[in-house]
Amino acid sequence: MGFQRTDSARIILRTEEFERALLLSLADQLCSFILPDGQAGDCDADPLEAMVGIDSQAQRPQDPALARLLPDAYLDDEEAADEFRRFTERSLRQAKLAHASTVQDTLRRSGDKVVLSQDEALSWLGFLNDARITLGVRIEITEDNHEELAGLPEDDPRLASFQVYDWLTYLQDSLIRVLAPQESDEPA
Description:
Order of helices and strands: EEHHHHEHHH
Structural class: mainly alpha
Radius of gyration: 19 Å
Number of strands: 3
Largest sheet: 3 strands, antiparallel
Oligomer: single chain
Number of helices: 7
Strand content: 5-15%
Helix content: 55-70%
């Protein structure tokens, strides 16, 4: 069914218990994945750097999925990319964690009907995108092999991941459609 907008302009998603559990698990996993190694209590961190959000330890992630979530800003200049990463990676990670946290919070306070504000819906959109990117990298999905992956045999270990990826794509698409301005919303 996907996301829908009600007459009162609320955004809702009706979920089954297993769907809520899957979304919560994905949000939990994404939070763990995005947290930098050794984040819990770096006593040697420069207080000024921490206060203004500079991360002198930021490096291009070795994990391909994390590298897609935290991409280089400059592909042809490694030094500039590293410098940019020092100033932006912390806030990018925090934004992604906030999106996943919003998904967790809204799922935990809801039953089978998740009701979202506009801001919460935007966080859901960010989370769905991050979860899809991570899964897509893991199963090595491309435009060229999407149909091949859709036809995987039941015993292929990638099938479940592809099905979750496909479902997240559906949810993301339905949310984008709900958030898109309606013709009646546009000024005349």
